[in-house]
Amino acid sequence: MAKGIVVIDPGHGGTTNVGGSDANHAVSASGILEKAMTLTLGLLVKNELVAANASGHQITVHMTRSNDVNLGLSARANVARDNAADLLLSIHFNGFNASARGIETFVRPEPGNVNLLADIAFAQKVQRRVFATIKSRDPGTKDRGVKQMRLGVLEDGALGNTAGSHPCRACLLEVEFIDVAAVDRLLNTGAAAAAVRSEIAAAISDAILEELT
Question: How many domains does the chain have?
Answer without folding.
Answer: 1
